[in-house]
Amino acid sequence: MTEFVKLFELLISASLVNNFVFTWFLGLCIFFGVSKKMETALGMSVTFTAVMMISTAISWIVYKLIMVPLNIEFLMIIVFIGIVAGLVQGSDTIMRKVAPALYYKLGIYLALISTNCIILAVPLMSVGNKYSFIESIVFALGSGLGFSLALIIMASIREKLELADVPKYFKGLPMAFVVTGMIALAFTGFAGLIKH
Amino acid sequence: MSATTEEISYWELIKNGILKENTIFKLALSLCPAIAVTNNLKNGVFMGVAVIFVQVMVNLTISAMRKFIHPRIRLPIFMLVISGWVTVVNLGMDALVPDVYRSVGLYIQLIVAFASILARAEMFASKNTIMPSMFDGIGMGLGFLVALVTISFFRELIGKGMLWGVPIINAKPLLILVLPAGGFFAVGILMAAFNWMYAKYFTKGHSH
User: Fold this and answer.
1) What is the mean predicted confidence (pLDDT) over B45-59?
2) Are A174 and B189 within 8 A, CB to CB?
3) Does the distance separating the beta carbons of B191 and A174 come in below 8 Å?
4) Do the Cβ atoms of A188 and B189 come within 8 Å?
5) Containing structural domain, residue B132
6) Average pLDDT, stretch B36-64?
7) Which of A46, A54, A71, A116 has the fewest CB atoms nearer than 10 Å to its CB?
């Protein structure tokens, strides 16, 4: 039972309290890139969460079973980026053959994901924090959900922002940053949710 | 190709990196560290220096090897070169400046995923000789450093009343600027200011 509570705490912590976008500032390129429309934001969220869980699982296995016994932990940056790139390329090819309908919907997001830093940060952090296998997967799920939440909130605001009268030099990205700052301010309210 | 690039002076290349294609303010790439490490000046400077080092070394390595890299497998090779140099910086900073590394370590490792570094390797270094590639790397890296220093200067000065850990302003600071949310505000406002400055002083005649 306590194990379950611990995992739940990890999930909440990864998705709300330490939300990747609002407190770690990771994945901003994609966050600002795809949050212009609700539809793309939803597609990205689904693809992202799935890829993140699989890549974290594979990285964990490779790290524990191959790199630690061989004493080559210092190569983890190279190995993890290889895993992410290979996985994205692989799932791209498989999806195109097996589920072409799904590929036409989500394929474009797959290509974008390999340039996302969260997808690399999650395996690095779960190794750094010495999570167990289950914990890493829950951590990846929480991070994915948190990123999806951020994307969806931002997309719904930006759709409205299109119609607003914004000062000339604030148009586009600068305004998006200020809005994100306000959401981040609201998210600091979650800080007390979990005792450290 | 090479005939035209010889004519571009090195100064032009550096200016291009700082102003016209400023990674953060103009291209809006590699934004994650721009907010994450800029709550004090020292972190901002070290992060910027690490990026300059990686960008220059990657450009040098790739332009030196450009004739041996088969175009079809160039991206994996670029990634290998980049992650190799990032590992060097990562281990080096861990050993030399452990106190800075403790707060920016994760972001140093994530230099691997910087779109800007891969983009310069692909667009510039793989097509040019060694010297222009080096200056292109210095220019792009300096643009990044300038942006980081500007952001962290304002955030530390207003948010804590200090610079490089030394108290400057003797008044109650606006704490919000060192909080995560303040980082977004600072970048948004500085980006608008950069747009304004660029439109006013660096585009002659046709400002939109």
Assistant:
1) 90
2) yes
3) yes
4) no
5) 2-197
6) 88
7) A71
For residue A177, the distance in angstroms to the closest alpha carbon of chain B comes to 5
Mean pLDDT of A8-14: 85
| A2 is a domain residue | no
Of B16-25, B139-148, B179-188, minimum mean pLDDT range: B16-25
Residue A185 has pLDDT above 60, yes or no: yes
Q: Are A103 and A96 in contact (CB under 8 A)?
A: yes
Give the residue, B192 or A30, on which the prediction is more confident.
B192
Contact yes or no for A24/A18 (Cβ under 8 A): yes
Query: Tens digits of per-residue pLDDT, A69-86?
Result: 888 888 888 888 888 888
Q: Say whether pLDDT at A10 is over 50.
A: yes
In a domain, A10, yes or no: no
C-alpha neighbours within 13 Å on the C-beta side of residue B124 = 28
Residue position matching structure tokens 């390595």: B61
Please tell me the predicted confidence (pLDDT) of residue B3. Answer: 42
Question: Does some domain include residue A80?
Answer: yes
**B117 and B54 Cβ atoms separated by less than 8 Å:** yes
**Residues 6+ away with beta carbon under 8 Å from B161:** B167, B168, B169, B170, B171, B173
In a domain, B57, yes or no: yes
**pLDDT at residue number A115:** 65
Q: Can you read off the two tokens belonging to residue A129?
A: 């924090």
Asked whether residue B202 is assigned to any structural domain, the reply reads no
B181/A188 CB distance under 8 A: yes
Interface probe, candidates A18, A30, A55, A77, chain B, greatest B C-beta count within 10 A: A77
The total number of structural domains in chain A stands at 1
* Chain A nearest C-alpha distance from B128 (Å): 25
- Minimal CA separation from A29 to chain B, in Å: 6
Q: How far apart are the C-alpha atoms of A76 and A62, rounded to whole Å? A: 10
Asked whether the CA dihedral B27, B32, B35, B39 is positive or negative, the reply is negative
To the nearest whole number, what is the mean pLDDT of chain A? Answer: 84
Containing domain of residue A60, as a range? 19-189
Using alpha carbons, select from B112, B116, B142 the residue that is nearest to residue B29: B116
Whether B191 and A173 lie within 8 Å, measured CB to CB = yes
Whether pLDDT at B208 is above 50: no
Report if residue B102 sits inside a domain: yes
Residue from B31, B88, B178 whose CB has the most chain A CBs within 10 Å, to mutate: B31
Number of domains within chain B: 1
Does some domain include residue A119? yes
Residue A43: phi, psi to the nearest 5? -60, -45
